[in-house]
Amino acid sequence: MSLTNDEDTGAIQQFDFSVDLLRAILWQYTTATNLQGLLNQKAAWYDTNQTQFWEDWYTNVFDLATANDFGLSVWSIILGLPLFVNTGTPTGPVFGFDAQTGYNFDNGIFGGSTSYDLPTETKRIALQLRYFQLTSSGTVPETNRMLAYVFRNFGQAWLIDYHDMAQAYVFNFPVTFDLEYLFNSYDILPRPAGVQSTWIDATLVYFGFATGDFNFDNGIFGG
């Protein structure tokens, strides 16, 4: 995964994929126009078929922040994280050909289960969180640096340590349905072993007794 700060996030070095074939010309051939013409043509071929290939590979596969669906599928296998949602086969009547209730080719057993891909941006977030989950120690400063990187295009996010074997992730931006599903279904938010972890959408108003909170006279029970 390509990150931004080598010391804080463990990013790998940046690669230069360019190939300067003209450096191979000996000084005595610097005036050989035919030879230079051939090398210029070969250099142009390398720019298209070597340099551009690896730059595209880096962007579309290697970097989790920009990977396309193919690259994300590769990372999904590497990190052991499925990127789809299965809708289960309903329970109920036994196999049969009753048009209303029987499980048959069009109703249940053979046609009732469907898989849905997560949105591409959600896949990127899921795999970055999974990568961090596998490679970090889960400390609060380390996790907050990760949150600042992963959710930089969404808004502020931070981790609170309650110092009682419990912690909470706070997202100061609306948590969309796909992110909510991700947080609730994948246990993807990093946490140390044995620590209870929850998450909070800070843009929502929760039950309480402060002015504006949902309470007996304001919203939930009597508003």
UniProtKB/TrEMBL annotation:
Q: Which InterPro entries match?
A: Phage_Wedge1
Instruction: Name the source's superkingdom.
Output: Bacteria
Q: What is this protein called?
A: Phage protein
Organism of this sequence: Fimbriiglobus ruber
* Lineage start: Bacteria, Pseudomonadati, Planctomycetota, Planctomycetia, Gemmatales
